[in-house]
Write a structure and sequence with these properties.
This is Protein tas. Belongs to the aldo/keto reductase family. Aldo/keto reductase 2 subfamily. InterPro entries: AKR_Detox_Biosynth, NAD(P)_OxRdtase_dom_sf, NADP_OxRdtase_dom. The chain is α/β, with parallel strands linked by helices. The protein has a domain of 209 residues: TIM Barrel (Alpha-Beta Barrel), CATH 3.20.20. Helix content is 36%, strand content 15%. The protein has twelve helices and twelve strands. Helix 2 links the parallel strand 4 and strand 5. Helix 9 packs across helix 10 and helix 9 packs antiparallel against helix 12. The longest helix has 14 residues. The protein is globular.
Length: 351
């Protein structure tokens, strides 16, 4: 698996990144370490974590993932692993993470990085990401910007400016605690502001954006891909299997074991009316061409020109093996044209 350079960094990452958000809830530490060992053996050098993992986030489990990864990482050659982490922002009601957190201010970002470094038993994180914007934006199943959310009790809500966020991250870069920065669940305006302000004030430049992208959520293509191209920013695509919907398992058995049936009410973007019909159509397309639905869904994301690395996750070794093996699947022009037809029929059903 040939490594890819991340623009404006000296990082070279595998085109597949191992996601860890099931570690500590659906996966035990032994299972987590088995997955990590297998991924490294297959040529993956990119590991994605977050302080709030595992998901769904809960007070009794948060930080477990980082602890498990740290117990594995201390036995690895640190310079061979590209480790990404994330600081949780406000606005999601996670009151047990640093008391809210109320904002992405200097104190909160610093507290988050210090905690992550300690749990993961490392001196630095290669790519540190803001898990979601502090400001009012549609995210995690929301799809419309709502200006009324800008106000509370008739007053404009305040949020830590992008410049101040970048200044804190710049301090951490200077101190060697992080090497590069990224965004997650970001919108085009936000990415452009981070880039503009970084240029204007000589602050760290955003290297990547980690957003949802899959066959039934192609919102990245509505404005963001032009920014990625013109500004040379990489996409780290998460949820390429759409919470398991694109594996076909819920089409075959609506009560199949998985996050959809285990965590009722979670992942609202996949509760939309056309998610089922679109997932069934893509599964049928895959099977007509002798592919599994998983192979089709992953190969599509793996081969998109704007994807720097695709974040995969699994709860079993069988799933992980299939997900990594799908890297070898190539989609023919005929299949790609059929995907276009289905996309036009079921346009972005899980925004």
């Amino acid at each position: 698996m040939q490594l890819r350079p991340l623009a404006h960094t000296d990082l070279h990452v595998s085109p597949i990144c191992l996601g860890t958000m099931t570690y500590g809830d659906q996966n035990t530490e032994a299972e987590a370490h088995q997955q990590l060992d297998y991924a490294i053996a297959q040529g993956i050098n990119f590991i994605d974590t977050a302080e709030m993992y595992p998901v769904p986030p809960k007070a009794e489990t948060y930080t477990r993932t980082e602890t498990m990864v740290g117990n594995w990482l201390k036995h690895q050659p640190r310079d061979k692993i590209i480790l990404s982490g994330k600081v949780a922002g406000p606005r999601r009601g996670l009151g047990w993470i640093r008391g809210g957190p109320p904002s992405l201010d200097r104190a909160n970002i610093r507290a988050a990085i210090e905690g992550s470094l300690q749990r993961m038993q490392t001196d630095y994180i290669d790519l540190y990401q803001l898990h979601w914007p502090e400001r009012n934006v549609p995210m995690f199943g929301q799809y419309q910007f709502d200006p009324t959310q800008e106000f509370e009790n008739g007053q404009q809500k305040e949020w830590v400016s992008i410049r101040n966020q970048l200044e804190t991250l710049a301090e951490l870069v200077k101190e060697g605690k992080i090497r590069y920065i990224g965004l997650s669940n970001e919108q085009p305006w936000g990415l452009m502001e981070f880039l503009r302000i970084a240029r204007e004030y000589d602050l760290p430049r955003v290297a990547t954006v980690q957003n949802c992208y899959n066959l039934i959520n192609r919102g990245m293509e509505f404005g963001m891909t032009e920014v990625l191209y013109r500004e040379n920013v990489g996409l780290l695509a998460y949820s390429p299997l759409a919470f398991g919907h694109l594996t076909g398992k819920y089409i075959d058995d609506p009560q199949a074991v998985g996050r959809v049936t285990m965590f009722l009410g979670y992942a609202q973007r996949y509760k939309k009316p056309n998610v089922g019909p679109a997932s069934a159509a893509y599964a049928a397309l895959a099977r007509r061409h002798g592919l599994t639905p998983t192979q089709l869904a992953l190969a599509f994301v793996y081969q998109r020109w704007f994807v720097s690395s695709t974040i995969i996750g699994a709860t079993s070794m069988t799933q992980l093996q299939e997900n990594i093996a799908a890297w070898q699947t190539r989609l023919s022009p005929e299949i790609l044209q059929e995907i276009v037809a289905l996309h036009l029929t079921y346009m972005n059903p899980a925004p």
